[in-house]
Amino acid sequence: MNHLPASPAALLLAAALAATIAARAAQPSVVEAHTLGYDPADATKALQSAISSGAGTVVVRKMDGPWIVDPIRLASDQEVIFEPGVVVLAKRGSFRGSNDSLFTAASGRNIRLTGSGAVWRMHRWDYDAPPYRKAEWRHTLNLRSCTNVAVAGLTLAESGGDGIYLGVDRSGGPNRNVLIRDVVCDGNYRQGISVISAEGLMIENCVLKNTAGTAPAAGIDFEPNHPGECLVDCVMRGCVSEDNQGLGCHFYLNNLDAASRPLSIRIEDCIFRGTNRQSINVSLPMRNRDSLVAGRIDFVRCRLEEQGHAGITISKPAEGARLRFEDCLLADPAASPALASPIVLQARAGARLRLGGIDFGRLVCREKIRRPLFDYPSGGTVPLEAIEGVLIRELEGNAEPIVLDAAWLAEVSPPNPFFDLAAAPVDWTRLPRPAAWPVVRPLPAHRLRGPAAFALHARADEHVRLVLRFQAVGTATNTDPFAVRVTRPSGQPAAQFAGWLGADCPCQFAAPEAGFYVVRCDPGRHTVTAAASTHPLCVLGQEGLFHWVRTEAAFSFSVPAGSGDFGLQVSGGGGEERAKASLFDPDGRQVWSEDAIGTPRNFIGRASPVGSDRLWQLRLQRPDRGVHEDHYVELRGVPAILFFEPAGLISEPTP
């Protein structure tokens, strides 16, 4: 078998425990926490004093009641032993801060937490209502940039965030040499375990269950926040992830790129079962070659056994990190499974790289009914590449091999001309110079999600007034302002404003020079609307892509003469999110229309070989079925500019 070699970091785990013992030997004192003034109503002082005492060992005895505490800070060079039956309970009414965790260590070293039969418990649902500010970071154990840590035997339950969070302190370094063994993470709000940045991590014989509250609600989530964070020499062995509201195992690696350290992750002899919404999701960035993170992720001898929900979803480029399954079993014994196919390959809107780089080995799919083993809803858009292995369908006592070879790839992923079309640069000289409207004028209804850019033309010394409106998507937790930046035609800053969620942001400035001004903002997961303007506006796509929410409006776009083929693609936001779209040529004829668009649908057109640039019109409407929420529009082969006016940007009148 092709196993990962034992990593230096993994071999250092034993040395990490030895370092803890050596540190305790240098400070051999033992402190029993209850002797420092245990109070059954509030034991914070006793426990924190014991941990802050400098003792090499702190013993937490089982008392008649729980240890009720406020947030506790852990110390370096120390073992804390929790006797069987001990319950450490978050104090009710405390933990008001969004990041208040039960136990926290930041840049700590040589920490050992042991407690077979001991429980740390918070009050998950209390934090969902006033006077608490809604948040997802009230973890049971919060480790940030720590080195040589062992956690063993504890049950971590009912947090307002994760059972265990492995994040980053101000130093920016990963957690190094961390062992989590025989731990139960039960009923946590966001994740059983979140791994943000780690080098040399072993998670062994743990149970991650009943996560529910906020997405992703996974048993375990590997999710770096920045390219400088890492997942190196990470092993999860002999664990069970069950009955989670979300995924059994989630890899969201879209924040890594080519400059990130190569991945090395091994999930071995693990079981995903019960009512997990799905077993495994692996997502890596598919934007461009600069986003390609190297390395590998291996699933070895794992069993996926959810009743009706056993499944794998993969969204990753063929180049870069490899994904491999070895001797795994996917068993869905439901007569009416919730998933149309147990394996879903998915290319998200805006993907520019081929999907693949997957070796399924000999993956056994034990089925109760006959259904397609693969679903590739983006099959008409993004080609597949470098997918290999054999699927063994076990059904009614028969074993049917499905070989994933070149012929299979050609069948599920036929060529699509849209994928080969390139993004077109914006040629500002080919856009008309519009005249300002005499007053602030309302614009057609629309909502752009995430990074947004608008452009307008102004003459020198002309006064520009624009109103942006920021609206929440879902439950709003962001109270910080959004920066709105205006760039001059020369590329220099022209003005800056602050927008707030749930409010209009008036933007007013005098144009210091003639030309096109770009107005940029990023409301994160929320939306921005250009509500009104003194000047005709257009919207600039982000790498050709427009991300809309509940938008019903008509837009024009320019097809430059002689530019050859161009493509328009419309897709829903996933699940039941859908859109309706119609396309009209320069003569007003409808040339394409589809309703309830979920998976990507595209149209290929051709520009006039000679003559002037022509305007086409795209109309977005509410679909007849499905959920009208997120949807995407992408343009390739022509500049990704959508005009609010049917005639594009209104040409300046002749004097």
Written account of the structure:
Strand 40 and strand 41 (493-499) form a beta hairpin. It contains 4 helices and 54 strands. The protein is 6% helix and 44% strand. The protein folds into 2 domains: 86-412, 3 Solenoid (Pectate Lyase C-like); 428-643, Jelly Rolls (Sandwich). The protein has 655 residues and is mainly beta. 47% of the residues are buried. Mean pLDDT is 92; it is low at 1-10. It starts with 7 loop residues before the first helix and ends in a 12-residue tail after the last strand. The strands form 6 sheets. It has a 24-stranded mixed sheet that branches. An 11-stranded parallel sheet has the order 4-7-10-13-16-19-22-25-28-31-33.
Descriptive labels:
single chain, 655 residues, mainly beta, Pectate Lyase C-like, Jelly Rolls, 2 domains, 24-stranded mixed beta sheet, 11-stranded parallel beta sheet, 4 helices, 54 strands, 6% helix, 44% strand, disordered N terminus
Quick synopsis:
This protein is mainly beta. The chain has two domains: 86-412, Pectate Lyase C-like; 428-643, Jelly Rolls (Sandwich), CATH 2.60.120.
